[in-house]
## 1
Amino acid sequence: MNKNIAIDVRDLTVGYGDYILLHDATYQVHKGDIFIIMGGSGCGKSSMLRVLTGLLPPQKGDVVINGTNIATASAEEVQKIREKSGILYQSGALFSSMTLAENIALPLQQYSDYSDETIRELAHLKLALVGLTGFDDFYPSEISGGMKKRAGLARALAFDPDIVYFDEPSAGLDPISSHNLDELILELNQSLGTTIVVVTHELDSIFTIGNNSIFLDAGSKTILAHGDPKELLKNPPNQEVYQFLTRGEKK
Amino acid sequence: MKSKTITSSKNLSPVQIQQKGDVLLLSFNGNIINYESQDLLKTIQNSFSRGVNHLDFQTDFLQDWDSSLLVILYEVLRMAKSNNIHYSLTSLPDNLQQLLNLAFAVDRKPSHSQSEKLPVIERIGQLAMQFYGQTISVLKYLGAVGGGVWRFLTASSIMRKTDFLAALEECGPQALAIVALISFLVGLILAFVGAVQLQTFGAQIYVASLVTIGMCRIMGAIMVGIIMAGRTGSAYAATIGTMQVNEELDALQTMGLSHIDFLVMPRLFSLLIAMPILTMLADFMGMMGGAFVGVFLMNLPYQEYWKYAFNAFNLSNFSVGIFHGFCFGFIIAICGCYCGLTCGRNADSVGLATTRSVVTAIVWMIVVTGIITVICQELGI
């Protein structure tokens, strides 16, 4: 396998029981990419993310992440992949009974041998990286939606992950917060070299941060396009992709 | 050409239907606000079956209208389409035309969950499969809880002390007042009910024995069980269910943190500790309630009442009650957490999970009470 490939998806079928959302999906994410999974509502973007993060087993096909196929991997191997991945959920998914610092410290306490003092400092640093210096002792209920997402991102970065997944990062954010989060994603990608996978249908975000993408289609249940979103806009392979990338304009 | 004018059920209706040959003309006059259209639509449907090929509209005298006119037009056009009747919207006001075009712009035929009516045998089979699936799910969960207890005993659990202490405070000190009040009232009621019967034999002093045995052996534990199922079990289901909705459970899973260790164990252990203590409190408060009736309302001598109460008190009754409390604690924690963990991902599901946790816990408490009673009977306790 090419060492430059972070995620290799081959002939993947995604679904729940008899209900198939997507079939024969094949694509690759290169290390250091900001990879966008886009498509209309109900096309299976979030389910694709659940498969990539090991929350939903693939119905068919292979999902190879950093050389390990999660379709056939043991629980320990999946756990190792997860330790090198971070996920920012739509709502931030912060634990409401814990302060922001405790949220970030939780995976570190579980999987590292760091002392309590080091973990505290690491949590402080991760919060500083996402612009939340001084919010260590705040509870999720005391901060805004945009700040929750940043704190969720700080938690996702706790273990210096190779890959960070974002599920609809702009959802529920005002345009400025959304733009700031996009900037943050770009900075993290450039400074840490982290591979980033973003599930979104926000066109501004797609064109600002994405350098590779797939377009999922709910009708055909397949990947209709694969490539740099800006290139896809210049040379759309079909009407569906063009309409999506131009907010419904007809060719 | 013969012309026939039909008006809708009210004579002065603002809607008139006129049939000229194969053309049906609908005239809308004056204000059409809050118009009840059912009779009118039936009349139009009947007209369509009498050789109508064209539909036309007249709105020259139409003044003010609301969505009820739009409903009439939308339904009439749907009927016309299904009867292959030609129509033109040009005689309608522009805004009405726009709205109708919008309404007919997307003509999807969603194939969403048309629940098939299965034959009885297949339905029974389906129910059996559901039951089987649920049983397997519960057994897996109980196995996972067993694993969690084992990890705790072997000091490899990730249960957080702060979570345990918070859960213990919630189901211990914070529940004292309500348990004390309800148990006092139950003791009071037991004493009243018993006193009415015992008074007829002049044996009202035995109210003390009745209340003591009743509260210590079973009533104290049952009352605490019901209170805690409604108060704490439902809170567990709602909290964990909300975590499911907020994707916090997914976050835990992707961090490799066990739901059982992190969420179930603190709640289970805190209830296992709190329930026997609350049961003791309920026993005591129930006896106080009985004493209140005996001493203040039935004028039994204070010392005499407590003498009979202590004579009736014995360790085996008390132990059976405490054991009930311990079992109920286990049931409430297990049901509350299970319903939360299996909750769906929307607000409705949280409500359902909460209800299910209370109902399931109470049903299992009754079942377990029956089992313990039979075992005690067999063992002569």
## 2
Amino acid sequence: MDLFPLWNSLRIAGISTVIIFFVGIFAAYYIAKAPRAVKGVLDVILTLPLVLPPTVVGYLLLRVLGPKRVVGAWVLAAFGVKLTMTWWSAIFATTVVIFPLMYRTARGAFEAFDETLAWSGKTLGLSNTFIFWRIRMPACREGILAGTVLAFARALGEYGATSMIAGYTPGRTATISTTVYQLWRTDNDALAFRWVLVNVAISAVVLLAVNFLERRRTPRRGAA
Amino acid sequence: MSLTVDIEKTLGAFHLNVRFEAGNGVLSLLGASGCGKSMTLKCIAGIERPDRGRIVLSGVTLFDSEKHIDLPPQKRRVGYLFQQYALFPNMTVRQNIRCGVREREGADAVVDAIIRKMHLDGMEKLRPRQLSGGQQQRVALARILVNGPEVLLLDEPFSALDSHLRLELEQEVRAIIRDFGKPVLFVSHDREEVFRLTDSIAIMRDGGIETLGEKNAVFADPKTVNGAALTGCRNISRITPRGETRAYALDWGVELELGRPVGGAQYVGIRGHDIQPGDGENALRCRVAEAVENPFSVTLLLRPLDAIAPGALVYRTSKKHGAHASQALTVHMPHEFLLLLKE
């Protein structure tokens, strides 16, 4: 069995999770502090990819990144690079789809953060960077980790938008989910089933990790 | 060393407008919750930004709206003790204290010294969660003291503690304040705590300072109804003047000799323990509405018999008088104990 889809799925999910880890936290941090009206509007816009059908996300991405569309045409003319139908094209799809998961869990964690900790850090002369990475992030660690794991799991399972923007080319753009569909369509039931098992196994591990993190969130470490 | 504060800030319907100067020693801000005490401290620390005004600490301008000066909290040298101490939960006691040391060089020795001084030996590796409330407060104080502050801001420092711990920690805080030798602002709504710990008192109401003065002077003459209530005076009656030094107390149904001109006073007040038993100057006939026993005294709720709409008087007396409910009782209020108050 050619393991390319597994490797491709993992690298797409991994890269998009790393990107969204920073982008999601950045957005969550600033939006958690924003005035209520701004927060309401941005929240709707940023959460939209979570509820839109992946095909709609894929369609919208193609409208922007397609070789004959604004951004896609410009990049093609300027750098000679086509943004669609390569293995990394799927990253556009997965980042958009998983962004709300990271953003919402991180924002929830930031909003639960006791702001007096940051204030006392400031009055003690600690830099804002130190306060963010050494005080705020550790206090919100479980929430942010849970968001990251969920985002990774969702990226691994992304099918609709990915198949539209990256297509299915065996050995080039095939992911686990597009491979399962392709194998089932071509009546290769046995192989499709094996990929299904791979997918179920990975997802189960991920959910176990989430549950483990959730459980640790309630009682904090006992002994130091 | 001194702290000058003259600031204004509007937040929705709330308007903060405070102006005071604090020298070495302790100035208490006494007021009901929501009066602007904590907001004032936050403005000094740079956590909240005033709309207008000036804050100067030990000759350094921290904030000046006209000169566009607004130092970040990091540069203000303000030691802020938060109500819940705000220790960093992910760090040990030692790491928490180390966060307060500004100079990298020799930091370990500084931390060692303060740990010994604050009796935190053996707790260095514990996390805040594993400490008692009192220990947490000592760690928070240690962290502030190694930071080299020019002013201490203590925001309700004892409110998170059990009552039996309070006195002990108050003792420690008093010793620290004595050694500190720079201005200290103390925020509380507990008048007894305030009286024990401070030199001067500012009585606050609705975002402003009503009365500011030496603590004994403020307790002896709180000047306003709010001030009287905050300093523990529970018996207050409206008055109408009846001559130069006399006034009729509407809620008590008695004409009082005040011993001084009425001036613009609209109210009169007397502390429960200043009411005297028996007949005498400004005597008042009452009925005991309720007698509540305390361990070593009894609190009587008195209804004046001659008032049209009688307000109750709270009168704390010794148990040996054996007063009981519905009994008639005459008390009197010597004029030197009467507080003349304005709205």
